[in-house]
Amino acid sequence: MSKGLLIVISGPSGTGKGTVCGELLAQTPELAYSISATTRQPRDGEVDGKNYYFLTKEQFEKMIGEGGFLEYANVYGNYYGTPLGKIEERREAGQDILLEIDTQGALNVMKRCPDGLFIFLLPPSLPELERRIRGRGSETEESLARRLGSAE
């Protein structure tokens, strides 16, 4: 049995990674989705274990110390990471895995898994990106400025 493919969708916050991944998963039911972990607060409608594993900073740092992440990063003041165990198990069993992560995380995964497929998304324009991020209603002006600056 061949090893499963690691497919990484990345791009700045607000580019539509979630939309693209949702469509891929709908069209490819055998594709497994990797749920990321984060220390940020859940947005309205997000469910622990479905959208993210919502962890405390202490829990996240313990997993870092135990080597429990394929990649992790501090993004906009919160940790985000890809738990390693399930990815290794599924790939070894021949299952393809889809990761939806920011660009910093994708670059780290590329170093550890150069055999992956890496797809980088861009927003249609910076004004549209700002509209999308503002539409979430979860960002302060400071965090919005950081996200837009990072996207540029």
Summarize the topology.
Blueprint: E1 6-10, H1 17-27, E2 32-33, E3 37-38, E4 53-54, H2 57-65, E5 69-75, E6 78-83, H3 84-92, E7 97-101, H4 103-112, E8 117-120, H5 126-136, H6 141-151
Parallel strand pairs: 1-7, 1-8, 2-7, 3-4
Antiparallel strand pairs: 3-6, 5-6
Description:
The chain has helices spanning 17-27, 57-65, 84-92, 103-112, 126-136, 141-151; strands spanning 6-10, 32-33, 37-38, 53-54, 69-75, 78-83, 97-101, 117-120. It is an alpha/beta fold. The strands form 2 sheets. It has a 4-stranded parallel sheet with strand order 2-7-1-8, sandwiched between helices. The longest helix is centred in the first third of the chain and has 11 residues, at 17-27. The N and C termini lie far apart (42 Å). The mean pLDDT is 87.
The neighbouring-strand order within the major sheet is 2-7-1-8
* CATH class category name: Alpha Beta
Task: Give the full name of the CATH homologous superfamily.
Answer: Guanylate Kinase phosphate binding domain
N to C succession of SSEs:
EHEEEHEEHEHEHH
> What name does CATH use for the topology?
Guanylate Kinase phosphate binding domain
Outline the biggest β-sheet.
Answer: 4 strands, parallel
Q: Helicity range of the residues?
A: 40-55%
- Rounded to the nearest angstrom, the distance between the terminal CA atoms is 42 Å
Backbone structural class:
alpha/beta
Number of strands: 8
Quaternary structure type? single chain
> Average pLDDT across residues?
87
What's the domain count?
1
Assigned CATH architecture: 2-Layer Sandwich
Helical segment count = 6
